[in-house]
Amino acid sequence: MALSDEGTATGRVPGIADLDTPCLLLDEGRLTRNVAAMRARLDGFGVAFRPHLKTAKSLDVARLAMASPAGPAMVSTLREAEYFAQGGVRDMIYGVGIAPSKLDRVGAIRAAGADLALILDSVAQADAVAAWSRGHADRLPALIEVDADGHRSGVAPGDGALLAEIGRRLVEGGAELRGVLLHAGDSYGLSDPGAIARAAEAEREAAVTAAGILRAAGLPCPVVSVGSTPTARFAQGLAGVTEVRAGVFMFGDLFQAGVGSVGIADIALSVLASVIGHQRQKGWIIVDAGWMALSRDRGTARQAVDQGYGIVCDATGRPYPDLIVADANQEHGIVALRPGATAALPDLALGARIRILPNHACATGAQHDRYHVLDGAGEVHAVWPRIRGW
Amino acid sequence: MALSDEGTATGRVPGIADLDTPCLLLDEGRLTRNVAAMRARLDGFGVAFRPHLKTAKSLDVARLAMASPAGPAMVSTLREAEYFAQGGVRDMIYGVGIAPSKLDRVGAIRAAGADLALILDSVAQADAVAAWSRGHADRLPALIEVDADGHRSGVAPGDGALLAEIGRRLVEGGAELRGVLLHAGDSYGLSDPGAIARAAEAEREAAVTAAGILRAAGLPCPVVSVGSTPTARFAQGLAGVTEVRAGVFMFGDLFQAGVGSVGIADIALSVLASVIGHQRQKGWIIVDAGWMALSRDRGTARQAVDQGYGIVCDATGRPYPDLIVADANQEHGIVALRPGATAALPDLALGARIRILPNHACATGAQHDRYHVLDGAGEVHAVWPRIRGW
Question: Is the ipTM of this complex over 0.90?
C-alpha cells in the first residue's frame, strides 16, 4: 500500500484478516463519538476547544477533532507544528516551554502562514523571545505557563511580581503576550469525579487569578487556556476561561478508564496481534505484540486495577473476561488471566488474532507509523499515517 | 540533511551544538570497543557470534557488529529481516516464534537471496512450516526454541518426545531442522557474575541436552545457539555450543550496568536534551527529553539502584554526581538529585545541553529515527538512520 510520507493515505486498503501483526487499529466510530461528546460538553460552557494533537499525531484524526481545518490545536513538538501547518492548521500553541535555540524553527513555521504561539515561565525565556521578535520583525505570541498544581512547569499563580515581570518583558521587548496557560496534570492521579471536579476548579481559579494579575498590571491577557482530559471531562464551571485543551480522551485508554475520564467501551485504539505460542502448564498464551508494539507504559500499575500491558479482546474488540497481557518482552506479549481470576483461559489457537486495549494511548500510538481505521462493521476502511520525532 | 530512507546517511553533518533536541547520540568509539570485547571473548571459546540487531536496527551499526557484511545476524521483526537483507545480510534468524500468516513474507525474503531461518516450539508451527515448504519448493530452515529458564517461550529441554516430534514433522514434512535455540532471559534479573555464570551454564546445558535428544533420534542439529548479553558476558564454558547471540551489549545501558554486564563508562547511547525551565524551590531542572525521547522503560526501578529515567551527564558525556531524570511526562523530563544525594544541583541555565544515559537501549533507541554518531573528539561525524515497525 502506498502511504504518502506526510499526508493522508492512498491506495489499496487491506482487510483486517490480511494485516501484518502487530499493528494499530483505530475505531473511527468511537473516536467520532468521543470528540462529539467533548465538543458538546465544552460548547455548554461557552468555551473554545483546542484539541491536543500529541496523542494522535495525524492530520486525519486532527481534522475530525478540530473545530475547523485551520484549528485551533495544541502540539507537543515542533515537528508536529511543521506537519500540521503543512496540512493547513493555522492556529497552534506549542505546549512545551520554549528553548531559545528553537526560535528559528518557530519563526519559519510562522513565516509559512501558521499562527504558532509559545509558552514560557521565566524572564530569561521572555527576554529571548522578545529579542528574537525584534531581530526578525515578527512579534512572537507567547502564553505564560502557570502552575496549577505543582506537577511540572509554570509560575505560581499568586506570584504576581514574576507574572507581571514576564509579561512586561514580552510586551515592552517587542513580543506579544497572548495569555496564560495551565495544565492540571495532577488530576491524572485521581479517580473520583468529585475530586477531579475540584482539581478542575483549582485549575480554573489559578488561571483566572493569573489573568487578573496581568490585567491589573495593564497587560493584555486575551487567552485563558486550561485543560487535561480528566478536568475537561468533570469541570463543573469554566467562568473566565476562554479555551480548554485535551487530547488523550479522543482515543481513551485504560489509564484514563482508571481515572474515570473514559469508559473501557469508549477506547478507540487497540493493537492487533497474533498468537505465536503457548505455555499451557503456566496458563500463558504468547502473542507477537510485546512492549515495542504496546509501549513500556505501565501506568495502570499505580491504579486500583493493574491492567498489565493491556486488556485482551477478541478480534472484534470484545474483552475476554480477566484476560490481560501479564508481561511483555520486546516482541513477545505473555497473555494470561489476571491474578485471582475465575474465568477460564480462552482456547486461542496458533495464528488466532486478538486485540489489546492499551494502558496509554499516547505511548502506544507512538510505537506505530499508521492507523488501520475501522468502520462500523469492524472492517478496515482507511489507513492513516502518523508522524513522530521532534 | 538528506537521509536515504533505508540506507546510510548522506549530506551535511551538523555539529553537536546545532542539533535539534531531543535527539539520539551514539559514541562510535565505545560501540566499537564493546563489539571488539565481545568478539574477543567469544573467539576465545571457539564459537561464532551472531549479533542481535533488535537494539541497533541500523545497517551502519550492523556492519560494525557482524563478522562479515553478510552476517550472521539475529533479528526480531520481519521488517528488520527485509531491511538487512536489502543491505546485503545473508544469514539471519528471525527470533520470534513464527505465525503461519508470516510465512509468505519469510519466503519472499529468502527468494531474494537471504538465508532467513525461523524459530518455533510447537507441532502446529512445524506442520505449518513444513506445509509451506512443500507448497513453495523452499525448505524453510527452522530452529526449535528451547526454554532454558521458564521465562517465555520454548520446549522444556528434557521433553524429548516433543522435541523429537517437532523435529520429525519438520524433516519428514519437507522443511529443514537447523538446530536448537535458547535465550536465558532470566539472567536479566541477576546482578552477581557468579550467578550469571551459573545461568549461562544452565543455558548451555539445556542447549546441549536438547541437541543430544534430537541427534539421538536420528535428526540433524547443526546449530546450537544460545545467548543474552549477561550470559554472553559471564559464561565460563561453551562446550557443545556453536554460536552465541547478544545485542544490547553493543550500546550498553543502565539496566545492563545494574546487572553488571557493562560499565556505565561503556554506555555508547545517550539522549541530548536542552534545559527549558527551572522549579528552583523544588530542586528541579526541566528538560525537553520526556518519555517520548527516553522511552517509558523504568527497568532500573527493580534493581538495587533506581536510575529514574536516566543518569544526567554534561554535554561531553561526563555524569553529574547523583543527577537523574527523576520523572518524565511526554515531552518533559524533570531532572533532580537522587534521594539522599549530598552533591549540589548543578547550575544549568536555560538552553544548556545535557546528555542522558538510558535505562534500556532497545527501548530508548526505538523512539528515534537516527543516530548522531560521535567521533573520538565528541563531534558528530555521521548520521545513521534506523528503522522501526514490523
Answer: yes
